[in-house]
Write a structure and sequence with these properties.
Largest sheet: 10 strands, antiparallel
Order of helices and strands: HHHEHEEEEEHEHEEEH
Number of helices: 7
Number of strands: 10
Shape: globular
Low-confidence stretches: 16-64, 217-225
Strand content: 25-35%
Mean pLDDT: 74
Radius of gyration: 17 Å
Distance between the termini: 10 Å
Length: 225
């Protein structure tokens, strides 16, 4: 049974890599000039997002199922930037690049016993990825603590191919992560198909990336397996 589960997980995440290349192929050329995360914080030529009137009560674009993934403060996949802003109290800088939009918190947010930079990533005005970046940490002890916290929510992780994480980030910020620098990569798949990646990307820095089901999982129907 364990072998079957491992094979199924491997198939899902191998297919993920193919799916990401296919989804993003149409805008690959434009993405090569996308700014770094530091440029997103105020330096670079990214275009300011147009001003939009927020809705009074933010709502998901579709009624979620009971087991659908819910991020901090009730944020769900498919929400637009204004809906996320209405739920997230921290100020954010927003940048738009072709079909992608990124919102980066202007200050670190509390995550477990740490603080981290928080990045919301939208494609065609819908939330598709969320990234925490933890910097200047005690890499081994803090990384293991965070792994334990994630395991308490999602169960035991599987090994993840660093190339998957790099490809996902390259969609909006080419070169931010290099596959050879990504260490201790692991992943979970939630009940609704959300992929959760944990990884170390520098000696004292690590990240957690959440990916919506249409990009990170949910590729197969597994009822009865």
């Amino acid at each position: 049974m364990k072998k079957h589960s491992f094979i199924l997980f491997t198939i899902r995440f191998t297919t993920l890599l193919v799916l990401i290349f296919a989804v993003l192929a149409g805008s690959a050329g434009a993405e090569q000039s996308a700014p770094s995360i530091w440029e997103l914080l105020g330096v670079g030529a990214a275009t300011e997002a147009p001003t939009a009137t927020p809705t009074e009560t933010p709502q998901p674009t579709a009624t979620p199922s009971p087991d659908s993934f819910r991020f901090r403060d009730g944020i769900r996949w498919g929400m637009d930037p204004q809906q996320v802003k209405a739920l997230e109290s921290v100020n954010m800088i927003e940048r738009v690049m072709q079909d992608w939009a990124i919102m980066v918190t202007t200050e670190k947010v509390a995550v477990s016993r740490f603080t981290a930079d928080l990045v919301f990533i939208f494609r065609q005005n819908q939330l598709k990825m969320i990234v925490y970046e933890f910097q200047r940490q005690n890499a081994d002890a803090d990384y293991q603590y965070l792994t334990g916290a994630l395991c308490s929510l999602y169960g035991e992780p599987k090994d993840a191919d660093p190339a998957m994480i790099r490809v996902l980030m390259d969609a909006v910020n080419p070169g931010r992560y290099k596959a050879e620098d990504l260490k201790k990569t692991c992943a979970w798949l939630t009940a609704d198909g959300t992929a959760v990646f944990q990884y170390q990307y520098a000696a004292d820095s690590f990240g957690v990336m959440y990916v919506a089901p249409e990009l990170g999982g949910g590729l197969y129907q597994t009822n009865g397996l």
